[in-house]
Amino acid sequence: MQMTDQKEIAADPATVYAALLDPEVLKACVPGAQEVTGTPEEGFEAKVTQKVGPVKATFKGQVTLSDMVPGEQLKISGEGKGGAAGFAKGGATVTLAPSETGTLLSYDVEAKVGGKLAQLGSRIIDGFAKKMADQFFANLQSHLSPENAQDDAAEASEAEADGADKKGWFSKVTGRG
Fold it and tell me: How many other CB atoms sit within 10 Å of the CB of residue 50?
């Protein structure tokens, strides 16, 4: 399977590059990620649970990074095993370029799957891969967006205020504090 696309991200290339190397950011952005550990120099280990068509599996895998040019590009290679569900392995070349709204991230992915996953057919696998990539980049955009960080803080303080109002109302009605 091959997939090429571009995404516009509202952050400068250095910020996007740093986010792609941060295991906590990756855990927050990779759909189904249960854990991501490691370093860019030594590689990452990940545990991801996903459902592809009728097959649900937890994949454990290793990811290594190479050809790293800070703020510009990196190459990702990885492989994961999902037990009876099969395996997935492949790589991606990621290129970052400054744009009017932040960063234009381009990626070129090549991947192979085997086992039960391969039996699902290329239409299901390709559609799933596209959906995963779109979700990852939507999560990354959300994670890096300053407006979303402010919105999250505002929602949290509103929720606290609502909770205080409800508590006050409840204590008035019941006479309990």
Answer: 20
